[in-house]
Design a protein that fits this description.
The protein contains 12 helices and 3 strands; from the N terminus they run H-H-H-E-H-E-H-E-H-H-H-H-H-H-H. It has 210 residues and is mainly alpha-helical. Helix 5 links the parallel strand 2 and strand 3.
Amino acid sequence: MVLQLSSQASHGFRNASSYDTHRPSYPLEVVDDLLAHLQVKDVPNARIVDLGAGTGKFTELLAARGEKYHVVAVEPHEEMRKALSAKGLSTVDVLDGYANNNAPESWEPTTKWEATMKEIMWSYHDQRPRFRHDLWRNVFDKQVSITPFTIQAADPLFSLPLGEDSTKFIDWLHPDVIWGRFRSLSQISILEGDELAVGLGLDSAEQFID
């Protein structure tokens, strides 16, 4: 199986420069908390893989930290990857690839858990991956159901519960840039003309221009 980006993602993120300009970054306290949960906060020279790095909104925050992380940023979209590479982050290696195809399909896992994880990832590939579908959670949930031991005794790669948190923050925007933010969403950026107008609840593109 050869993985490729869906047409929606390929077309929707084609304007990587606009995406990088208009998408918000992450609050520093959120990054700090995440790294603490991952037990890499204050760990010098830790190696971190950033899957689906995009234009590097998160990657550059990692690169700027005092721990001097070595970051491997994996991003399948060529234009997004170019935008990230152009930032010249000295401790970041930018690679083309997917979260689940950095090895051939014929690659044989070395453990039963790895084999199960690989099976799950491939079985849920539908050419239109969406984070909001929560299919990625099955990788973590499945590892519990396949082992006859408790999660502690099994010593899986990922410990449970994963831990979830949320942080509310306000990002004030000038009216002139609100549309740019809106158009940075892939499902909106692929729309043009009357199709875009309908998506906005208007009758036609002319009404949108007015």
